[in-house]
Amino acid sequence: MLEKALRYIVLTGVFALPFLVLYVSTSLFFPFITGKNFAFRIIIEIILGAWVALALVKTEYRPRRSYLLWAFAAFVVLIGISDIFGVYPEKSFWSNYERMEGWVTLAHLFAYFVVAVSVLNTERLWKYWWHTTLSVSVIVAFIGLLQLAGKVPINQGGARIDARIGNATYLGVYMLFHIFMAALFLARAWVERAKERILYVFLYGGIIFLNSFILFFTATRGAILGLLGGFLFGGIILILLAPRSRVAWRAGSVIVAFIVLVGTFWAVRDQVWVHRIEPLHRLATILSDGTTFSRFLNWGMAWEGFKERPILGWGQENYAAVFDKYYNPAMYAQEQWFDRTHNIVFDWLIAGGILGFLAYLSLYLFALLALWRSNAFASYERALLTGLLAGYFFYLLFTFDNMTSSLLFISLLAYIAARGAAGAPKAARPPITPLSLTSLPIVAAVALVGAGGLVWYVNADAIAANRALIQGLMPYAEGASKNFEYFEKALLHGYGTQEIREQFAQAAMSVIGVSGVPNDLQQRFVQRAAEEMVKQSNDAPQHARAPFFLGILLDRAGAFADAKVALDQAHERSPKKQGILFEFGLNAFARGANDEALGYFRSAYESAPAYAEARTYYIAALVQTGRDAEADAILTPLIGTREAAQQRIAAAYAARGQFDKIIALWSSYTKDNPTDFDARLVIVGAYYSKGDHGRALQELEAMRKDIPGATPQIDELIRQAQGGAIQ
């Protein structure tokens, strides 16, 4: 009875995992990530305890020895060693709320693999499991359809659907797995159930069509190309296995259709209608858009990082340090704080060095060996599963894993390992002697208590800190003092400290100078947030993010000398990042070191002259320091464009009383853009500031004719101007 109960606990947990994709915890920070991952960890910890009890007393609950099992174990150990000797071991082990990965998640995935291989030990159980997750994928797909219809909001915004996963890319790879597995079961039904083919074509074909439709509207290029490439690869394998069979002819027909489809699309890729459809637009611009360009830049930086630490790497979650140190200024148009290379090869080269990467590749190698050396798989199964592995790996060449896709990948490995072991001869070596069945109650009690302790240790503080953090971000009738209390409470738990500290610093900046917040509370916010950011900087000594944020906080608080110390540290860790140079320049101006400020802005501009923001900062700095000729040399080619008509440049000229210069620059722009209300208002302000109130009124009257939709606002400005004060 107890044995059945423990087995039921394990099976219930394993079959609950596919439903995690539907779970979103709105009470947690990063709700689409944290809720799923905490639930995954807790389920694994519980079923691990129950499985350990079963495995100690009965050998049939133990995994069969396999190269894939040992390869996975070696991978986990090697990455653990890399994390220990990495540059930020704490984050490598625990990760953060945004990613929820790190070694702790890797260990949980390995535990899941062991349990799944051991307990899902029949084809029937695996069939039930895969059909469970296929059924859930249909639910997910219908949520995606509702998003397309506008009935359910797209969580990440834009046109790319994300269902309950919260990220279109993650939804794309989720669908990739289920399309292949539906195709696998369709092929099996076609072979084994000839009389019921129509039923299964309708069932599995419907799932394939629905999930493919959703995959297309995620506009995830890596997943779409991975799907097409995976089926193409699988088709080639079928042809090679039986070149004169009907299956080969069918596979060949599919390949020809694929080639025609790709060729046709490439021929019409520049048509207007293609670019009106978001997924087709993204595919058509795959070689020319900034995202693809940034991938190559990222890989170049990752290569430099790998060369610095080639054997064991930097530890998990530490690409940010590599990105900072080897930052390429050409990345200016992209996110400034990349924490992933967006390439599985470089991700593991950075995390685990060459040893970790080879250990990761061994998972694919031994999965393929198990697939192709075992007589448990039919030829069509080998082709489809090999195609799935190939398509998934291709997808990972342009992005990275998440819990949803990792769970499916490990499930696939466990499925291959379990079926491969079932078709292999039993090992000659006798198993470790099990404990007596009569000891099961005691063993179960100890194992489940241990599991409960593990649940508490791994999750309790992390969840409590997360909830305190989200409470710290909410508005309260009591005012900012309540937020301060929650931030302090969140920090006590010792988990997610980087994100808590950064949010604390953001909150501190938001209260500076706010009349409704007492001065002593403002000072406490700044002091405590600064203390925590110093700790964060010390905890992650090769990351530029913490000292940079600290410098911004201290600048906003008016502690310019202390801010310079922090910014010096950030600049040392990331000498080429323009954002740091911008803040350095502003800090130098605040300290009265004008020539120093100009030097920082010049460095940022010269690192990437095409970077519009860097150019604007530099022009403004030249104007502010009286170097008008140099400013004019850069401005002259831009006159008449929005790039010359920038508020920061106007402010620099206004500070020196050069209002005519503002009028000339902005008038050149508004000549071709007369309906730009804000730009026209700058001209009005310039006339008014130089004392020419009549010309200011004339400009307002002209605006009323050119921008009739803004007549009420313009009339109010005219009334104010006639009264002698524009507000």
Descriptive overview:
With about 725 residues, this protein is mostly helical. The chain has 32 helices and no strands. Among the domains are: about 1-60 and about 435-470, no CATH class; about 65-120 and about 290-425, no CATH class; about 640-725, Serine Threonine Protein Phosphatase 5, Tetratricopeptide repeat (Alpha Horseshoe).
**What structural category do the secondary elements indicate?**
mainly alpha
Give the percentage of residues in beta strands: under 5%
Query: What is the number of strand segments?
Result: 0
Shape descriptor: globular
Kindly provide the radius of gyration, computed on alpha-carbon positions and rounded to a whole number of angstroms.
Answer: 30 Å
Mean pLDDT equals: 91
Q: What is the tally of helical segments?
A: 32
Fraction of helical residues: over 70%
Biggest β-sheet strands, sense, barrel = none
N-end to C-end Cα span:
81 Å
Q: Which spans of ≥5 residues are poorly predicted at pLDDT below 50? A: none
Protein name: O-antigen ligase-related domain-containing protein
Keywords: Membrane, Transmembrane, Transmembrane helix
InterPro entries: O-antigen_ligase-rel_domated, TPR-like_helical_dom_sf, WaaL-like
Membrane topology: Multi-pass membrane protein
